[in-house]
From TrEMBL:
<keyword id="KW-0443">Lipid metabolism</keyword>
<keyword id="KW-0249">Electron transport</keyword>
<feature type="region of interest" description="Disordered">
    <location>
        <begin position="1"/>
        <end position="25"/>
    </location>
</feature>
<dbReference type="InterPro" id="IPR036400">
    <property type="entry name" value="Cyt_B5-like_heme/steroid_sf"/>
</dbReference>
<keyword id="KW-0276">Fatty acid metabolism</keyword>
<feature type="domain" description="Cytochrome b5 heme-binding">
    <location>
        <begin position="373"/>
        <end position="440"/>
    </location>
</feature>
<dbReference type="InterPro" id="IPR018506">
    <property type="entry name" value="Cyt_B5_heme-BS"/>
</dbReference>
<keyword id="KW-0275">Fatty acid biosynthesis</keyword>
<keyword id="KW-0813">Transport</keyword>
<dbReference type="GO" id="GO:0020037">
    <property type="term" value="F:heme binding"/>
</dbReference>
<dbReference type="InterPro" id="IPR001522">
    <property type="entry name" value="FADS-1_CS"/>
</dbReference>
<dbReference type="InterPro" id="IPR001199">
    <property type="entry name" value="Cyt_B5-like_heme/steroid-bd"/>
</dbReference>
<keyword id="KW-0408">Iron</keyword>
<feature type="transmembrane region" description="Helical">
    <location>
        <begin position="97"/>
        <end position="118"/>
    </location>
</feature>
<dbReference type="InterPro" id="IPR015876">
    <property type="entry name" value="Acyl-CoA_DS"/>
</dbReference>
<keyword id="KW-0349">Heme</keyword>
<comment type="function">
    <text>Stearoyl-CoA desaturase that utilizes O(2) and electrons from reduced cytochrome b5 to introduce the first double bond into saturated fatty acyl-CoA substrates.</text>
</comment>
Amino acid sequence: MSTVVETRPLSPSKVHPTPPLTPPLKMDKQLKEEVPIDMDIPDNYVAWTIKNQKPLPPVTWSSLYKELNYLSLYVLTITPAIAIWGAFHVKLRWETALWSVIYYFITGLGITAGYHRLWAHRSYNASRPLQYALAMAGSGAVEGSIKWWCRGHRAHHRYTDTELDPYNAHRGFWWSHIGWMLIKPRRKPGVADVSDLSKNEIVRWQHRWYVQLIIGMGFLVPTFVAGLGWGDWAGGFFYAGAARLCFVHHSTFCVNSLAHWLGDTPFDDKHTPRDHVITALATIGEGYHNFHHQFPMDYRNAIRWYQYDPTKWFIWVCQKLGLASHLKVFPDNEVKKGQLTMQLKRLRETQEGLVFAPDVNELPIISWESFQEQSGKRALVVIGGFIHDVSSFVEEHPGGRHLIAKNIGKDATTAFFGGVYDHSNAAHNWLSMMRVGVLIGGTQHGLDDKNIPPSQRLRIARYNELGSGNASSTAVEDSEGLLG
């Protein structure tokens, strides 16, 4: 049995469809780019790729000329050569020097505030005018299009310090700084999705006109501003153009190299990213890299007011001017958890380098009679249910030897816990190191907390240590040998 579904007649536009605005082949390519490339990757993608993707053979001196990326080589060698030649033949005017610094920050912010924090990490929303401005400024840094740059950077974050990281810091400082651009990679970088950027009209515009933009923003704009402004055409080209471009290049490269080499790890030490003010100064604020790798979608790199991060302040000012919105900030509570984790880890390392009081479970239990008998042979006192051998300390006691001598063979608990003197943390810690036994009957009521040395009351314990008890052994051993 079949049914007939009545359909509406086609409209004239459907009967005679107009030609598509985009050729079918180009439309198919665009739709393909908008599908996330990492949609169907296996869960063990990194291990699977390393196992199944055969790397290129190692580079040797004889094969080096075939393995060079000549386009990057030309850009990274000819530009500084031009700048050096200009430095020897063209006088630097103060106006040009100032303009070079200003343009360095303009194009640098195109990378840090634009390529990096806006497009690679989506840490805030930018208005169309700001997006166009950042796309053009970033073009002036001549570091590839937004889409190309972000694809590599997202791979770097996803596969940090692995063989799929395009600028893997484990391959050495110079590899992560510049080598990865000069030599063809031995492996393809790990897959990273940029489908969101393929939908972005401004990203597509910059990608389409990239060659014209790098010529215009990289050299023509700085040259024309200096030439039309104060007649220094040559200075504008050599200093604000070529020399400034060298500084912008290596400023950005330091994020891949110096930021993984210099500094400390206040949030996580699992990977190589580090925080350091020198790197921040060299990279327009991108130097607090340990924070950034932990909280990559935060629009800040520096979270303290005194830390150098002009990119953060630029984005904040743009928000105040209505050019940016939805600035992403990770919850302070989560940031502090990261800091606390590393603080506890360092405390644990310090703790493991110290010697603490003997384990209560390993001390023999001694009767009162045995304790008094052995006190006639050496200086033993009872404090808080523990037997202490104070022989080596009698002569060094700050209150005088007589205060200890009169309590040998006796219970000095009251005197120690404030009856004569309320002893310091140092005294409690030191006394605990002299424990040689536990008086039968255990700790006196009310002294449970006081009998734990201050250095161990906040002891850092791993999760698998939390269940271990601190009770005394149930065995009774009165032999003198175990006390001595």
